[in-house]
Structure formats: structure tokens, C-alpha cells
Amino acid sequence: MTQIKSLFATRLYHSNLSKFGDPLNPKELEASCWSIAQDDKAGQDWCEANGYPGYTSYASLTDLGWRFPIFEALQTILDQHVADFAKDLEFDLDGRELKLEDLWINILPEGGTHSAHIHPHSVISGTTYVAMPEGASAIKFEDPRHAMMMAAVAIRDALELFKKPIIEMHISNIYKREEFRHKSLISGVATGGIFGLGTEGYILAIISLQKLLQK
Asked: What is d(CA 206, CA 214) in angstroms, rounded to the nearest whole number?
């Protein structure tokens, strides 16, 4: 059953994959994800270097459909779901079709999280849950209009009024990632910054703030 509802300023599409096409074998799909994760050395290295908990193929693989036929079948099904959603959104595509350009795997360990973020170059973004352990928390949706990103003017304005030391901290090195991530409005008002040291950066930021406050 498909559900489409408004959440904040966003239309939210929720449906089973089986609505379109032949049903996929969930065990085969899960096994394929694990197989790729175990073989993808470049992806493993990226996760370690950027402090990503678990595994993601985000920065290493763009050809999942070529590697395993089940991902090609998944993409075909997702294309149909997106087309269905586009009708509800009343997109004027002028005869064109929406194209799925990026498909990647995320595998999180116990306690791992995938933090709030945006996909600024996407028309439609989505997540397909392949497997979830018992007791796992539900997905959390936040109002995309909130000034919660590093490029938010409202956060910079607030920090300009803050008269204490400010440390800007990023788990990954944003300057080694996509160009659109390089722009930070916070850097101009921050006392200093820590980039690319993984979650260890939080500890270093706290130590730095303690020293700065003691001056």
C-alpha cells in the first residue's frame, strides 16, 4: 500500500517495492549488499578516513546494477515508484523522464547513525530498507527549512552574537569532498576548526574550548 502525505513543507512517499514489477528476494538483496561491502576496499578506506560508522559505497561505487543483477532490477522498480510520486507532485517534465543517477549501500553497526543531511542536486531522494535488526530506531524526519546546515545564514547570524569561543567541527574533511560542501558560512565567525579527524574531532573540540575558555 502506498502512502503519500505532507510532512513539514515536504511531500513524503512511502510504499512497498512489490507494488511494481516482480517481487525481489530480500535475502538475496541483503546478501548482495554484504558481499559488496566485504569486497569494496576503496569504500572501506573512505569510511575509515572519514569516520563513517559501518560501510557505505557512496564514495567508491557507481555501478551496482552491473555488479549484481538484483540491483539492476531494484533500479527498474525504483524508477516506477519515482514516476508514480512525480505524478502526485505534479512535476512538469515537458516530456522528459526523471533518471536515477546515484544508488549506494549503507550498512550501519549497532549504535551507528546516519546524520541529518540534504541532497541539494537531487529532484527526489529516497531510502529503501533492506534489513533492520530487532529494536532498531525508526527513521527521523526533520523540517528541511530548519537552519541546521553549515551553509545556513541564521546559524552564522546567531554565532556572531555569541561572545564565547566557537569551534567548527566536521567528521570528514569537507575540502576533500564535493565542491558544494566546501562553502561554510560558519568558518568566518568560528575561532577555529577541526576537519577530517572522525569522531575524535569532538573530543579535540571540547579540549580546545576548555583551553580557550580558561584564557
From this structure: 12
Q: Give the CATH class of 3-107.
A: mainly beta
Q: Is 67 helix (H, G, I), strand (E, B) or coil?
A: helix
Per-residue pLDDT of the chain (215 residues; tens, 9 = 90+): 788 887 777 788 999 998 998 889 999 999 999 999 999 999 999 999 988 889 999 889 989 988 999 999 999 999 999 989 988 888 888 888 888 888 999 999 888 877 777 776 788 888 899 998 888 877 777 766 555 555 567 778 888 888 899 999 988 888 888 776 777 888 889 999 999 898 888 999 999 999 999 98
Query: Could you tell me the CATH superfamily of domain 153-214?
Result: Dehydroquinase, class II (3.40.50.9100)
Residue boundaries of the structural domains of the chain: 3-107, 153-214
Handedness of CA 94, 95, 98, 99 (dihedral sign): negative
Cα–Cα distance between 34 and 163 in angstroms, integer?
48
DSSP sequence for 151-206:
T-HHHHHHHHH--S--EEEESS-GGGS-GGGS--SSTTT-SEEEESSTTHHHHHHH
Q: Which residue has the cell 558544494?
A: 180
